[in-house]
User: Fold this.
Amino acid sequence: MNLKEQLYICTLARCQTMTKAAEELFLTVPALSMFLSSLEKTLGAKLFHRTGKILQPTPVGERYLYYAEQMLRLKEDFDRELTAEIGMQKQTVRIGIQTRRAISAIPWMLPRFKEKLPNLHVIFRDGEYYSLMKLYEQHQVDYLFYTMDEEVPDAEYVLLEEEPILVALPKDHRCNCLAKQDPQLDYPYLNLEALKGETLILPLQAQSLRLKIDRLLKMAGFSSADVNMLEIQNFAAIIKTAAEGLGIGFIRAGYLEDLLPSERICYYYLGQKPAASPLVLLYAKGKKKAIYHEQLVQIFREYLSSR
Assistant:
């Protein structure tokens, strides 16, 4: 993008003399003077008053400078974005994602990345909560797509949605009769206190949902005597175990799409104001300045809206 004309006039206005402007532009004074005369002749108007050697913009010159400066700023923006775009061709973005989410998210997202960001090499790394946090802290991933129940120092994030937690009860469980309906909710709801004394099937402590449930139990006044616990890592196994009548399971609502439906399970929210966790895309401060950042975030939003 060549804006030589605008650059020359803005330089003349700033330097105020033909000699200084010519030196800065690496031109001879006659060449610059000829350029100005030719331009003024083409425009049919003077751009500068000449008082001795001093150049002062005319009213027409002031308007010319106003637009010329905007054009030069736009050129700077374009050059900066072009440089970033060229640099992006050599960039790799590493995205950490919870294992359970990876099952449906990665196959859906990869074609969108190839379509919308063809010059960006995307690598997904899946794992449980603590392993993902370790990868992030060691700068082995650039983004984390996960449920964030604890603030992460020196990080920023985009809140994608609030994801509810569901309780999974066997169809013949006594607590089903304690569930309450709310027409504004997708599922009936149970208060956590109703589950005291029951066997709870929980994910492992390395998983983010376990952190959330432990906090909820503590807030509800549960003691160790109130909880009979089974620990299972795999969420499909948690739901199947609950379906067999061996306890009450917990799962995030977003995980259900990857599970086979079961007529032997009833799902409930935890509380009339359903317990939920923020589902976020987390990244180090400054990452959103990357030219691909907004498009990357949009792909994640589109994935969630497609479910």
